[in-house]
Amino acid sequence: MPFIECRQLVKAYSVSGHEIVALRGIDFEMERGEMVAIIGPSGAGKSSLLNLLGGLDIPTAGQLVVDGQNLLALKGRHLTQYRLQQVGFIWQQVERNLFAHRSALGNVILPMMLAGVPFWQRRKRAQDLLETVGMSEHMRKHPAQLSGGQQQRVAIAIALANEPKILLADEPTGALDRQNARQVMSLIGELRERYHLSVLMVTHDMEVARYADRILTLRDGSLGQDLTHDDTADLLVDEHGNVQLPEQARIKLHAAPTFAVEIRPEGVLLRPEIEELDGKTTLHDFQDAPPPKRASFLSRLFGRKSSPNGKGA
Ligand SMILES: Nc1ncnc2c1ncn2[C@@H]1O[C@H](COP(=O)(O)OP(=O)(O)OP(=O)(O)O)[C@@H](O)[C@H]1O
Ligand SMILES: [Mg+2]
Questions:
Q1: Domains (ranges, CATH) in the chain?
Q2: In angstroms, what CA-CA distances link 267 with 83, 250, 261, 279, 301?
Q3: Is 291 left (phi over 0), alpha (psi -120 to 50) or beta?
Q4: CA angle 55-58-63, nearest 5°?
Q5: Relative to the CA of 238, which of 131, 159, 244, 261 has its CA 20 to 30 Å away?
Q6: Nearest CA residue ID for atom 5, ligand 1
Q7: pLDDT in 10s for each residue of the chain, 313 residues
Q8: Which residues contact 38 (CB under 8 A, 6 or more apart)?
Q9: Cα end-to-end span (Å), the chain
């Protein structure tokens, strides 16, 4: 039995008499210890899915089973316990992760207080967690005295305070620069191994998504392609301009020391510069690529069929 199982999961919101369907029958499974990234455009239903998994909201229809518990049947005290003890959240917005008037230590202690962890245990556990995320030196500081990256480290410690089995992260690096985003992702990766956490993460950033075992796409409330191993996947461009290229194309691009980006009326061409002939750089012609994949990749990159010489024009 999978650790997380969604079957035909539907979420509809009612706004002034109108129904907005955010999730249209999601089928999805996750194993214990797995890390899955969900990418998709704004309004696709990504946060709605996390909210359901975290017990913050109730599905309109379908099944949602986590670690053998049917979330649709959990009510009141049991649902609160699930939220406090089974899942940890990290949000993009600092103010959602941290209370401004509490120190880093006070913030990590808080979820343990709510879960009824005895006084003598919670302080020690909070200190240990802050040490684990590299924030021992800053545990007396308040959020305003910490950098964005440091705040997200504290947020991770808070999320893990009650030893959850699942970490749900909604754009955890969305407010961070590249370097801090990488550090936060490495940390999440380490902690996932150490605590055998299942991590479900929403991101717009393809570089961040690559830390996951699987990358799923969500569009208009439906799960689409698994981008992880699919050579012919539709290309998605994240907000930083990163593109997940098919494996075939990555191999080709790695073979070239540099490549140029050429914007043409029919699309964007990534042109590996591997040869100088008569002062002109020639395009690596993808000749040794198997024909079907080559056609598929180029046609998707340019939005139409490429010419046989691979120049796409
Ligand atoms: N509480 C709510 N009440 C009404 N409609 C909502 C609510 N939350 C989300 N929606 C709607 O449901 C749809 C999916 O929203 P959701 O927040 O899940 O998208 P998202 O993929 O997380 O987008 P983003 O990348 O912008 O965060 C949107 O049309 C949104 O307007
Ligand atoms: Mg969202």
A1: 4-226 (3.40.50.300), 247-302 (no CATH)
A2: 46, 18, 11, 25, 7
A3: alpha
A4: 90
A5: 159
A6: 13
A7: 899 999 999 999 999 989 999 999 999 999 999 999 999 888 999 999 999 999 999 999 999 999 999 999 998 899 999 999 999 999 988 888 999 999 999 999 999 999 999 999 999 999 999 999 999 999 999 999 999 999 999 999 999 999 999 999 999 998 889 999 999 999 999 999 999 999 999 998 888 998 999 999 999 999 987 777 654 455 667 777 777 676 666 666 666 667 777 777 666 777 766 554 444 444 444 344 443 343 344 444 444 434 444 443 3
A8: 46, 49, 200, 201, 202, 203, 215, 216, 217, 218
A9: 50
Tokens of 25: 């029958």
Residues with CB under 5 A from ligand 2 (ion): 47
Ligand 1, atom 11, residue with closest C-alpha? 22
Q: Which ligand is nearest to the CA of 48?
A: 1
Q: Give me 59's structure tokens.
A: 């599905």
Mutate to test the pocket of ligand 1, among 9, 11, 13, 24 (most ligand atoms within 8 A of CB): 13
Sign of the torsion angle spanned by Cα atoms 13, 50, 39, 185:
positive
Which residue reads 């191994």 in tokens? 193
**Ligand 1 atom closest to the CA of 49, numbered from 1:** 18
Ligand 2 centroid – CA 312 distance (Å): 36
